[in-house]
Each structure stands twice: as C-alpha cells, then as structure tokens.
Amino acid sequence: MAQQISVGSSLPSNVTLKYCPYDAELQNACGIPQNLELDRFKDKKVVIVGVPGAFTPTCNNTHLPEFHAHYEDLKKKGVEEVIFVTTSDPFVMDAWGKWTKTNDKIIMAADGNGEFLSAMGLIQDLTSVGFGAVRSKRFALVADHLKVTYLGVESGHGVSVSGVKAVLEAL
C-alpha cells in the first residue's frame, strides 16, 4: 500500500472514479456510470470525503447528512464540488445519493477496485467485521487545484476530523 497522502501532496492523476451523474428524471431507475477524471478538479477547490461503505450507520446517518446540510456553507468558503467516495460500484453510490436526496449537490463516486484510495494510502482492511480487505478509511480532504490543503483521517469510530465542521474550520 502507498504511503498516506499528506497536506501539500497532489491527488493521484492515474486513476479514474465512476459515478452516475444526477438526473432528476431517474429517481426510480439506475443511472449510466461515467468516468470521473480527477483532472476535472484541476482548477477547483473540492472536498473529497471517503467512507467505509454506503448505507452504513455512521456514513448514512451522520457523515453524509452533515455535508449535505452544510453544502451552502462549503460553497460560501469557495468549495466548488463535494465528492463522497467508497469502494463500491457506481450503482450503489447512485442509489445512496437518491436515497439521501443529495441530488446534484454531492457527487457520489465509486472506487470499485480501490485504486484511487490505495494510491492515497487511505485503505483499511475490514475483513474482521465482514466488510472485506479493501475499504476506505473515514477521511475528508480539501484539494485546491489538485493539491491537498487539509486532510482529516479518523483514528477511531465516529466522525470528528473528517466531519463538515472540521472541514469548514480548515477552509
């Protein structure tokens, strides 16, 4: 596994995430997965949030709702896009976005093979709880023109340094 990314590092450029773009007409149907190239963020300030799994209690009940609720606060601080990522497939992430009604505010991205998360050193092995060997650590980062300006990686359960309040304070 790669060394964990740090403030001042660049986001990996040789990986592609997948996502289903928001489409209001597809609320009860699957979207069509598209590539999400990180180059899309080269001239932007973005927040990327990594979670161990879609629909899991902390991710679904705390982490994602807080970012959704404070979306406008993030925008006021110059954030142009918010991306949630986990090692799942784009259809699960699309369904999670529809379930939580994030609509076009948060990009729900999939890193099915864990290539993006592995390149950043943000993978954890959760086989002991039946989640598999390649799962995202819980984290939030701010990248400005693809350079990491904030990184909060949780060392235990719950949401603190990866939460929206910590990100807003860092902005």
From TrEMBL:
<dbReference type="Pfam" id="PF08534">
    <property type="entry name" value="Redoxin"/>
</dbReference>
<dbReference type="GO" id="GO:0034599">
    <property type="term" value="P:cellular response to oxidative stress"/>
</dbReference>
<dbReference type="GO" id="GO:0005777">
    <property type="term" value="C:peroxisome"/>
</dbReference>
<dbReference type="InterPro" id="IPR013766">
    <property type="entry name" value="Thioredoxin_domain"/>
</dbReference>
<dbReference type="GO" id="GO:0045454">
    <property type="term" value="P:cell redox homeostasis"/>
</dbReference>
<keyword id="KW-0575">Peroxidase</keyword>
<dbReference type="GO" id="GO:0008379">
    <property type="term" value="F:thioredoxin peroxidase activity"/>
</dbReference>
<feature type="active site" description="Cysteine sulfenic acid (-SOH) intermediate">
    <location>
        <position position="59"/>
    </location>
</feature>
<dbReference type="GO" id="GO:0042744">
    <property type="term" value="P:hydrogen peroxide catabolic process"/>
</dbReference>
<protein>
    <recommendedName>
        <fullName>Thioredoxin-dependent peroxiredoxin</fullName>
    </recommendedName>
</protein>
<keyword id="KW-0560">Oxidoreductase</keyword>
<comment type="function">
    <text>Thiol-specific peroxidase that catalyzes the reduction of hydrogen peroxide and organic hydroperoxides to water and alcohols, respectively. Plays a role in cell protection against oxidative stress by detoxifying peroxides.</text>
</comment>
<comment type="similarity">
    <text>Belongs to the peroxiredoxin family. Prx5 subfamily.</text>
</comment>
<keyword id="KW-0049">Antioxidant</keyword>
<dbReference type="InterPro" id="IPR013740">
    <property type="entry name" value="Redoxin"/>
</dbReference>
<feature type="domain" description="Thioredoxin">
    <location>
        <begin position="5"/>
        <end position="171"/>
    </location>
</feature>
<keyword id="KW-0676">Redox-active center</keyword>
<dbReference type="InterPro" id="IPR036249">
    <property type="entry name" value="Thioredoxin-like_sf"/>
</dbReference>
<dbReference type="InterPro" id="IPR037944">
    <property type="entry name" value="PRX5-like"/>
</dbReference>
<dbReference type="GO" id="GO:0005739">
    <property type="term" value="C:mitochondrion"/>
</dbReference>
